[in-house]
Amino acid sequence: MRIRPVLLTLALASDLLVDAFLINPPSRQSNSALLPRRRKKKPPKASADGWAKYFHEPSGTSLSNHYDSRYEHGILSYEEKQDSQVHMMRAYLDFFKKNNIETWLAHGTLLGWWWNGKMLPWDWDIDTQVSGPTLMFLGKHFNGSIYEYSSADSDPDLQPVIERQYLLDVNPAMIERDRGNGDNVIDARWIDIRNGLYIDVTGLSETEPLDQPGVWSCKNYHHYRTTDLYPMRETMYEGVVAKVPYAYDRILAEEYQEKALVVTEYEGHKWHPDIKEWIKKTPDEIKQERLSRQQARRKKQEEKAQRKKAKEEKEKAEQEAKEKGEAVPDEGKKDEKEEDHSVDQGIKEPEKEPIKMKRNAEPDPDPESDPEPELMKESSGLAHLRHRQLVHNV
After folding, report:
1. For residue range 52-75, what is the model confidence (pLDDT) as tens digits?
2. Which residues contact 131 (CB under 8 A, 6 or more apart)?
3. Residue ranges in 328-371 assigned as alpha helix (H)
4. What's the pTM?
5. Nearest CA to 117 among 109, 125, 126?
6. 3-state SS, residue 41
7. Any idea what DSSP says for residue 213?
8. Do the strands 215-217 and 223-225 form a parallel or antiparallel pair, or are they unpaired?
């Protein structure tokens, strides 16, 4: 009999929280006319098991997970995806700059910036981060906002000018700053309402300020120190002004290992340093590489079979010598060990020289030693290291 009053209290508290954080700013255009395909859905309710999942993706292939189910109507082509992502990112950064709200690049998006100030062409995920207070501010004042975008690099005299609309949708469960049941690790999304592609926005908060002061965490177990994040560096990303964490090199190395900063072939793409671009391999190139790998594998198997056969023949000869009472020379075994050692040394992959980079544990004491214009000029982490004349293998 006592359960019902408790449930009513929880429901009332949840409604109050939703009203507090999910309001549209006054004097904004109604979203109903702009979102004819948007499905009405009630905000999730808090329960003893945690918040119900708010954002949903279509089921099916792995690529379907990168679309919001309310606006998805099919998988985009490689070229369509790239075009959508570039303009979606530019619109996102433009919106935050116009409203004087801080956001920065994260995860694979930050890794793309490291290489050439652009997105990794094979990456379907776009990730950004904001602070916890900024997340609350977005939920209260901008949730449900529709942003009207016109391409900044479009010539107004040319037609058609690129004009698109993007939705900022803030998850009501963002008020909970721990992982919970794991259904709401994404706090907000910036969604292209034409096709459902989106940018994941996650908040960072000091969830344990007493036990771990200065440690910022998201709901997906990524942790950062204050000195890793601030002061933020202003740079360029996809042709527009953006921000990256201060110790971007440390963050990338910890999240992806340093090999992600030096490997020049990945996901069917190859890095071309002359033009500073990741270029997708042609079908003929992929086929040729597959044949080369098969040939190398076959050669290695043949060499292994030959060594095994030679070893068996030698063991057989030694056994026959023992049966006849003949002495077995030690030199043969010694030569065999040396041969095996030389073969092993020959097939061992050469060790790569580790990347040498400065670890920014603390901000530079002299601001002039690391001025922001350096990054602004080069517009990528890789170029920044080159500017500082640090060694890297690329």
Report:
1. 999 999 987 777 789 999 999 999
2. 102, 203, 204, 205, 216
3. 330-347
4. 0.70
5. 109
6. coil
7. T
8. antiparallel
